[in-house]
Every structure is written in structure tokens, then in C-alpha cells.
């Protein structure tokens, strides 16, 4: 009896010591068995729940989400250190993500495939001018400018001289930009494929919400509500891939296969050069196109819609941007050499990307080995969550973070600068490969639109900046007034 009591006492002491040590090195909230902290995670805005926990427990804390041990990183310095390590190159297994991507494509590819495809995509983007260092950068800019000009032409039509929700037109022209960039062929304004693609991608992103319990409790897939959700997700993915498969097939059969550069031609060139049959397959081409197309369109569309909302709310900032464009361009067309002098324009776009981070939860990583960092241990098998929203809304870094102030990104010399805590494209070896082209598109769009229109809210209708969180943070549909200058 005494031996039994002694063993129990020892076990209790060891558990107590473990809890104390865990709290010392990895603080975090208490979690329920099986579900962990999922019951308290706001399903519509999980990033807000996790940000409140960061305010309470600090910039690195642990949490249990279903069966997953998660370490949340809410500090830019810590995030950069962690994601720079090879032990964090793996993507964290999430049921819905794995169901859709199966470790292929690019964003969620396994390490070996990712290394190859990251290099391939980087070379492709450089070849088409969608990278900072590229001899064809001007060609890419011209392609983007054509779509901006189309946007302006449409808005100048008499039918559009009234309050309108710009989301449908933005979606169409960014989708056309993506198709031009990847397959060398734009969409016409009457092309039904764009509408179908956009509708199914939107459904896909809404269903793929990071905070969905099914990601962390896979056994829920056997219950009717979640079983239906998986069915809807697979159907949306199938419809998107079916449309994109037809686009790829059209590209193979039409003159676009003879274009100087397009994704299909570049991919087929790898096959002809005898690259790995396990990587350069038709299935991988379709998945890669899906990844690139969805990532480019969703982040860019939502970024532009947030930009239009904030510019409509702050007409005085529009005027400052127009003055800068007038001074820098001197009546000439926008060229890439001008980008470096558009300090206030770039600061405004950066401030919008900060205050409404399009991917507030970042993309989760996975600790393939124990990680020791500044006295903290992140155990092997832990999901690593880059909480970009908390980093960008940290009052210690950005005073009064809910206030919209582009001057945060202007230094004492009046020039644009990017602080270390500004990470809209995340950080590390697996950060977004499309940062340069995304910045190109938003800058050229904003310059083109503001040179032709004044953007304002509809009288007596306050703008809503809360957003809807799926795979990305999207502004809610609302009308704006585009008045010709």
C-alpha cells in the first residue's frame, strides 16, 4: 500500500514539474481532452481569438487544436528565426489540405517535390518578367497595364456611372491577368469560364477555412454535416480543375503553345529534357496550375478590393497619391524605373496590407525535429502557426494599429521603407514565390485607377472593414462610387 502511494505521489510530482516547465517555456491556455481549444476558437475569425491569446501569453505560446499540438508565433523576429530552419520546411498535415492537395502542387507539396517545383516556378516567373530581376520585366508590366486599361475603359462606360460593387470586374480582370501570365492567353469580358472559375474558387476557399474543426479532428468526416462539407469541397476542386484542364488543353492545341513563355510549354520542356517522371507528370502540371492560379487570383483580388475600400474611406490619401504620380511621371506612362520613386504610393499599399492582412494566419509549418530557440523547445511533430495578423497589429510595434496611417512606412528622408515586422508574404525558404508580381499588379492597378477616377463611398452607407475569413480574408461585398476625373 505504501509503495502504491509513493508511486502515485512521484507521478503527481512529475506531472506537476512538467506542467510548470511547460508553462515556463511554452505558456498557453488550458485545453480540454480531445478537442483542445477548438471550442473557444471563433469559427468566423480564428485569427482574432489567437491574437487575444498572444496578448495574454506572449509572442510564442502553445495551444492544443483537436489532436494537434500547435505553437503560435506572433513576433516577427521569432518567426523569421524559426522559419529559416530546415526543420520547419515541412507543411503541417491538416485533413482538408491533405484531402485537396495530396502533397503535390507547390504550396503544400512535400519537401523534395517543393524544392524542384519552387526552382521551376521561380525560373518561369523570371522568364515571363514576373520577378524583380528579369530582362522581360517590362513585357510583364505591359501585360498588366493592358488589363488595367480594360478596367478603366469599362468603368468609364455610361452603364457604370453609378454606385457599383467592383468585385466582379476586379475578379474578371485579375483572372484574365493570371491566365495571360501562366498560359499566354487573356479572357474576354464575356467568357463564362471566368465566372465559373471564380464561383468555384470562392466556394473552395470558404470551405477550406483553417479553423474548421475537421482539419484537427479527422474522425468528424464520418458525421453527416462534415461528410457533406468534404463532398462540396471535392466538387468545387473538381470543377475548378476541370475548367483549368480545358484551358491547358486549349493552350496545347492553339497558338499559345508557340508563345515565347507559358507554363505548359515550360513544363513540357522539362519533360523533353528528361527530368524526373515522378515529378513532371500531367497530374502535377494540373495541380501546379491550380496552386498558382488560385494563390495569385485570390490574394490579388482581395488585396485590390481592400485597397479600394481604404482609398474610398480616405480621399485625402488618394489626392496625395495622385500628386506623387503627377510629380514622378511628368505626364509619361508608368515605367518600372518609376516604382522606386513612388514612396507614398508604396507606403499606402503596405499600410493596407498590414491593417488587413489577406492571409492572417499565414501558412502553417511542421517541426520535423526538436527546435531549440532562445531557451524554448518546439517539440518534434508540432504544428507551427505564423500568426501574421498579430504581428501586423502589435501595438508595441505599430502604435494605434487600428488607425490607417501610411506614414508608418515613410522614413525620416521621406522614402518608403519596409520594417522587419512587415511580413505580408510570410518569411523563410517557403515564403510566397509571387511577391514581386503581386506588388507589380497592385501598384500598376492603383496608379491606373487613381489617374482616372476618384473613389468614394456611397452617401450614408458606412464601409464595412470586418471582412470574411476563409482561406483568405475577403472584404464583404459593398458598393463604391468611381467618379471620372
Automatic annotation (TrEMBL):
GO biological process: organic acid metabolic process; xenobiotic metabolic process
Cell compartment(s), UniProt: Endoplasmic reticulum membrane; Microsome membrane
Gene Ontology cellular-component terms listed: endoplasmic reticulum membrane
Gene Ontology MF term list: heme binding; iron ion binding; oxidoreductase activity, acting on paired donors, with incorporation or reduction of molecular oxygen, reduced flavin or flavoprotein as one donor, and incorporation of one atom of oxygen; steroid hydroxylase activity
Residues that bind heme: 432
Chain segments annotated as coiled-coil in the UniProt record: none
Designated name of the protein: Cytochrome P450
Species annotation: Zophobas morio
Amino acid at each position: 500500500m505504501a509503495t502504491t502511494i509513493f508511486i502515485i505521489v512521484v507521478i503527481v510530482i512529475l506531472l506537476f514539474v512538467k506542467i510548470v516547465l511547460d508553462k515556463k517555456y511554452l505558456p498557453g491556455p488550458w485545453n480540454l481532452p480531445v478537442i483542445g481549444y477548438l471550442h473557444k476558437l471563433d469559427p468566423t475569425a480564428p485569427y482574432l481569438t489567437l491574437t487575444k491569446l498572444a496578448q495574454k501569453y506572449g509572442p510564442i505560446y502553445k495551444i492544443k487544436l483537436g489532436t494537434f499540438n500547435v505553437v503560435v508565433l506572433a513576433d516577427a523576429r521569432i518567426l523569421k528565426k524559426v522559419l529559416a530552419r530546415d526543420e520547419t520546411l515541412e507543411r503541417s498535415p491538416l485533413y482538408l489540405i491533405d484531402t485537396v492537395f495530396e502533397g503535390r502542387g507547390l504550396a503544400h507539396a512535400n519537401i523534395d517535390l517543393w524544392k524542384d517545383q519552387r526552382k521551376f516556378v521561380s525560373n518561369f516567373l523570371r522568364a515571363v518578367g514576373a520577378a524583380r530581376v528579369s530582362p522581360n520585366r517590362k513585357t510583364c508590366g505591359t501585360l498588366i497595364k493592358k488589363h488595367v486599361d480594360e478596367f478603366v475603359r469599362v468603368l468609364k462606360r455610361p452603364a457604370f456611372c453609378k454606385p457599383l460593387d467592383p468585385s466582379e470586374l476586379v475578379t474578371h480582370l485579375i483572372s484574365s491577368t493570371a491566365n495571360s501570365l501562366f498560359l499566354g492567353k487573356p479572357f474576354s469580358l464575356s467568357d463564362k469560364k471566368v465566372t465559373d472559375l471564380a464561383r468555384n474558387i470562392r466556394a473552395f476557399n470558404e470551405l477550406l477555412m483553417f479553423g474548421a474543426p475537421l482539419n484537427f479532428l479527422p474522425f468528424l468526416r464520418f458525421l453527416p454535416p462534415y461528410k457533406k462539407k468534404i463532398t462540396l469541397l471535392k466538387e468545387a476542386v473538381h470543377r475548378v480543375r476541370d475548367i483549368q484542364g480545358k484551358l491547358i488543353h486549349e493552350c496545347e492545341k492553339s497558338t499559345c503553345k508557340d508563345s515565347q513563355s507559358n507554363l505548359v510549354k515550360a513544363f513540357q520542356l522539362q519533360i523533353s529534357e528528361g527530368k524526373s517522371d515522378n515529378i513532371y507528370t500531367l497530374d502535377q502540371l494540373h495541380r501546379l496550375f491550380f496552386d498558382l492560379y488560385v494563390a495569385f487570383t485570390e490574394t490579388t483580388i482581395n488585396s485590390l478590393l481592400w485597397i479600394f475600400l481604404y482609398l474610398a474611406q480616405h480621399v485625402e490619401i488618394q489626392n496625395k497619391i495622385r500628386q506623387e504620380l503627377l510629380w514622378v511621371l511628368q505626364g509619361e506612362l508608368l515605367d518600372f524605373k518609376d516604382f522606386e520613386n513612388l514612396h507614398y504610393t508604396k507606403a499606402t499599399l503596405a499600410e493596407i496590407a498590414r491593417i488587413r492582412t489577406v492571409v492572417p494566419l499565414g501558412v502553417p509549418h511542421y517541426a520535423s525535429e526538436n527546435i531549440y530557440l532562445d531557451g524554448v523547445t518546439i517539440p518534434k511533430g508540432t504544428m507551427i502557426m505564423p500568426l501574421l495578423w498579430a504581428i501586423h497589429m502589435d501595438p508595441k510595434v505599430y502604435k494605434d494599429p487600428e488607425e490607417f496611417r501610411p506614414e508608418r512606412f515613410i522614413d525620416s528622408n521621406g522614402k518608403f521603407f519596409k520594417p522587419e515586422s512587415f511580413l505580408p508574404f510570410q518569411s523563410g525558404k517557403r515564403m510566397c514565390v509571387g511577391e514581386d508580381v503581386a506588388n507589380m499588379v497592385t501598384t500598376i492597378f492603383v496608379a491606373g485607377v487613381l489617374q482616372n477616377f476618384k473613389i468614394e463611398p456611397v452617401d450614408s452607407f458606412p464601409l464595412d472593414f470586418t471582412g470574411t475569413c476563409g482561406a483568405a480574408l475577403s472584404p464583404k461585398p459593398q458598393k463604391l462610387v468611381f467618379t471620372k476625373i
